[in-house]
Amino acid sequence: MTTANEQIADKLKYNENGLIPAIAQQHDTGEVLMMAWMNRDAVLETLSTGRVCYFSRSRGKLWRKGESSGQIQTLVDFRYDCDQDTVLAQVDQLGVACHTGRRNCFYFAARDGAEVVISQPEVAVDELYGKK
């Protein structure tokens, strides 16, 4: 018998590589934290555990957000768009979301014809990943 989570995962439209874009948004502030990719297994794990899981294209395997940095995303609401080809994971982010130590990954802005860095790291990368 197919579970409700499997029905949802099967309904989503993945690209030719079996991936779907997933946007992580802080549930209570609306802050867009990051964009990553999920495959069917990542969707199922996220829905079944409540801890957000992505698919790492560089590592070629599931990536549980925070497994090496401790910066965990707990799922609050799992949404998908009208075309069923993009996921919105509303999360409770523990710590920073970006691997650069910033709160979110969207810290570049185009302003007055120039690229501007609009936020600084809150945590040193060495501290995040224990590379002291």
What does this structure look like?
By secondary structure, the chain is of the alpha+beta class. The chain is 17% helix and 34% strand. It is built from three helices and eight strands, in the order αββαββββββα. The strands form three sheets. A four-stranded mixed beta sheet has the order 2-1-6-5, with helices on one face. Strand 5 and strand 6 (87-93) form a beta hairpin. Helix 1 runs antiparallel to helix 2 (40-49).
Structural class given helices, strands, pairing?
alpha+beta
Taking Cα atoms only, what radius of gyration do you get, to the nearest Å?
A: 16 Å
- What would CATH call the homologous superfamily? Phosphoribosyl-AMP cyclohydrolase
CATH architecture label? Roll
Order of helices and strands: HEEHEEEEEEH
CATH topology annotation: Ubiquitin-like (UB roll)
Kindly provide the name of the CATH class: Alpha Beta
In DSSP terms (H or I, runs of 4 or more residues), the helix count works out at 3
Low-confidence stretches: none
Q: How far is the first residue's CA from the last residue's CA?
A: 49 Å
Q: Assess the beta-strand content as a share of residues.
A: 25-35%
User: What is the tally of beta strands?
Assistant: 8
Q: How many structural domains in the coordinates?
A: 1
- Quick one: overall form? globular
Largest sheet: 4 strands, mixed
Overall mean pLDDT: 95
Share of helix, binned: 10-25%
